[in-house]
Design goal:
The complex is a heterodimer of chains A (217) and B (127). Chain A is 49% helix and 18% strand. Chain A has 217 residues and is α+β, with helices and mostly antiparallel strands. Chain A folds into two domains: 64 residues; 138 residues, Histidine kinase-like ATPase, C-terminal domain (Heat Shock Protein 90). In chain A, strands 2-4-5-7-6 form a five-stranded mixed beta sheet, with helices on one face. Chain A has a two-stranded antiparallel sheet with strand order 1-3. In chain A, a hairpin with a 2-residue loop joins strand 4 and strand 5. Chain B is of the alpha/beta class and 127 residues long. Chain B has one domain: Response regulator (Rossmann fold, 3-Layer(aba) Sandwich). Helices cover 43% and strands 20% of the residues of chain B. Chain B has a five-stranded parallel beta sheet. In chain B, strand 1, helix 1 and strand 2 form a beta-alpha-beta unit. Classes of the chains: A alpha+beta (217), B alpha/beta (127). The interface between A and B is medium-sized, with 15 and 20 residues.
Chain lengths: 217, 127
């Protein structure tokens, strides 16, 4: 399949059947009365339509990053704006994660700001969905890097590393309107061209995910 | 829903997907609107000129005549009708050009249907 045909498939052809599902779901919501079986079926339909839409959307956006199709040059911007932007989005969307503790200086970043914020928020949301616990989140500037660090207490079985890094979207118990819930593949693909990376470690009852975002020299 | 004494407003749906047209019809008739349907921009053009809808909901990419071409042809012969664009297209004209064609709102597919209903209510208020 040619790249332009693939793009049309994801950005156009899939859109109408997904829209039809949304519409049918909306009409069913109006029609379903107190029947518990119908309500159960509707709940499953709601979740499935949403999950399908998000999986396809984040898969496609991650593919575009991996194939270098989304890269427009970005004017360097202050890392301090990252923390502020994340806090604002968390408040606006009332997401089920705590805002990060910040220790940011005067570093400048070249990674696109909105995708980076979405990717870092998505990492927190993914960890929360995977573990059912809210991670502790820190944003710290160290020489040459901004580190976004997420910590979770738990035993070695709490997280499945292979699944965490494979799933393009991990459904959250509290789904959000905004597109701020990409899986880790999106963040990895975003950071790679800039020399950034992710690392997940479990040690002595603590899981730690660290995202290394290179700053502008 | 319509309030007592309120005139029935007419909405034209221009969309090549039959299932989606059916969704729109069910939704809008439930809200008290009168609905007309067209499969493409060419049919839509003819229906606007003959039926004078209060609002148009139009797709962009359709066979024979796309939504933008339809709105441009209409703008050449009559004042713009408040229009809502529902689209998966990623290269639309800028907001100013869309406004000149009567477009009051653009929804990217897929979208929340309750927001579409609200947009239609607002669009017909001025007509």
């Amino acid at each position: 399949m040619k790249p332009e045909d693939e793009r049309l498939f994801f950005e156009h052809d899939l859109a109408t059947p997904l829209t039809n599902l949304q519409g049918a779901h909306y009409l069913l919501k109006m029609a379903v009365g107190g029947d518990p079986r119908s309500a159960d079926a509707l709940e499953v339909l709601t979740h499935s339509v949403r999950t399908l839409e998000r999986m396809l959307g984040w898969y496609w956006r991650t593919r575009e990053l991996l194939e270098g199709r989304e890269a427009d040059p970005v004017e360097p911007w202050p890392a301090s704006a990252l923390g502020r932007g994340i806090r604002e989005r968390l408040e606006e969307e009332r997401l089920p994660v705590d805002p990060p503790d910040e220790r940011l200086g005067k570093a400048l970043l070249s990674v696109p700001q909105e995708p980076l914020a979405a990717g870092l928020i998505g990492a927190a949301v993914t960890l929360q969905a995977a573990s059912k616990a809210v991670p502790r989140w820190e944003l710290e500037e160290v020489p040459g890097l901004i580190v976004s660090r997420y910590s979770l207490e738990g035993d070695a079985d709490l997280l499945d590393e292979e699944r965490l890094f494979r799933k393009v979207y991990w459904p959250s118990a509290r789904p959000m309107e905004a597109w701020l819930d990409p899986g880790l593949p999106y963040l990895e693909a975003l950071l790679k061209p800039f020399g950034g990376s992710l690392e997940l470690v479990w040690r002595s009852g603590l899981w730690r995910l660290e995202c290394f975002v290179p700053v502008r020299p | 829903m319509l309030r007592p004494g309120e005139a029935v407003k007419r909405v034209l749906i221009v969309e090549d997907d039959a299932h989606l047209r059916r969704m729109f019809r069910a939704l809008l008739e439930n809200e008290g609107f009168e609905v007309r349907e067209a499969e493409d921009g060419s049919q839509g053009l003819a229906l606007v000129l003959s039926e004078a809808p209060d609002c148009i909901i139009t797709d962009t990419m359709m066979p024979r005549m796309d939504g933008l071409a339809m709105l441009r042809r209409l703008a050449a012969v009559r004042p713009p009708v408040p229009s809502i664009m529902v689209t998966a297209a990623f290269d639309l004209p800028d907001d100013r050009q869309l406004k000149e064609l009567g477009v009051v709102k653009v929804f990217g597919k897929p979208f929340a249907f309750d927001r579409l209903v609200e947009a239609v209510r607002q669009a017909v208020q001025g007509s």
